[in-house]
Amino acid sequence: DFREGGRDVFRCGPPGDLRFRGVTTYHVIAPNQCVISTETLTENEERRAVALYALEFEPVSEGTDLRMTIQVVSFAGPEMVEGYESGNRGALEGLARHLAQSN
Predict the structure, then answer these.
(1) Conformational region of residue 87, where left means phi above 0, alpha means psi within -120 to 50, and beta covers everything else
(2) For residue 100, what pLDDT is reported?
């Protein structure tokens, strides 16, 4: 539900073990400028992490630069932060592959 006030619900976790339930809430969507959202991850109804995402878009001659800032509060130790780093890195790499095929 990609709109201000909208929510997305998803599952995530290590490959083959999607044990976490995520809820993303979109707070600001400024087309061609930024998207601000928060995310809560739970496991078995227990809160594991809360994150604030800021995606900033800047036009450049070759297309658009993306700056992604994520602030994570982990209630489950440093492994949760490492999971965020790994998951977001994989998502950005997948996006880069998709965009490279589109050209």
Answers:
(1) alpha
(2) 87
Token pair for 82: 């490492």
List, in order, residues 6 or more apart from 31 with CB less than 8 Å away.
none
16-34 pLDDT tens trace: 999 999 999 999 999 999 9
Count Cα atoms within 13 angstroms, Cβ side, for 31.
1
Return the structure tokens found at 35: 């998207």
Q: What is the DSSP string of the chain?
A: --STT-EEEEEE-STT---EEEEEEEEEEETTTEEEEEEEEEETTEEEEEEEEEEEEEEETTEEEEEEEEEEEESS-HHHHHHHHHHHHHHHHHHHHHHHHH-
Residue 35: count of CB within 10 angstroms of its CB: 18
pLDDT score, position 103: 65
Residue 88 has pLDDT above 80, yes or no: yes
